[in-house]
């Protein structure tokens, strides 16, 4: 997902992504519960093939107690018969429970930050 601050969705931002990137826009440019729930509904649910599924999320405020996502999961089950459980990892434990986030994405985040600063 690419999240931008603003009021308008600018299609040209996705021109080189070959429909492989989900774009969202809100006033702050930070993830919120509505964007998170809609991302799961629009991108993750259509890719689900198994009957029983778990989505692991970190303790970010947009993931915790997201009642809209709970509603979407119930509707998805009613429509497809496929269950989706959302499991929230403890806050502050991402580097221990998600080593990929540290070992791989740390370098990507640094390069992206350097690019934005140049």
Automatic annotation (TrEMBL):
Domain named DDE-1: residues: 12-114
Pfam families the UniProt entry points to: DDE_1
An example molecular function term from Gene Ontology annotations: nucleic acid binding
Highest taxon above the source species: Eukaryota
Record-linked InterPro entries: DDE_SF_endonuclease_dom
Protein name in UniProt: DDE-1 domain-containing protein
Organism of provenance: Ramazzottius varieornatus
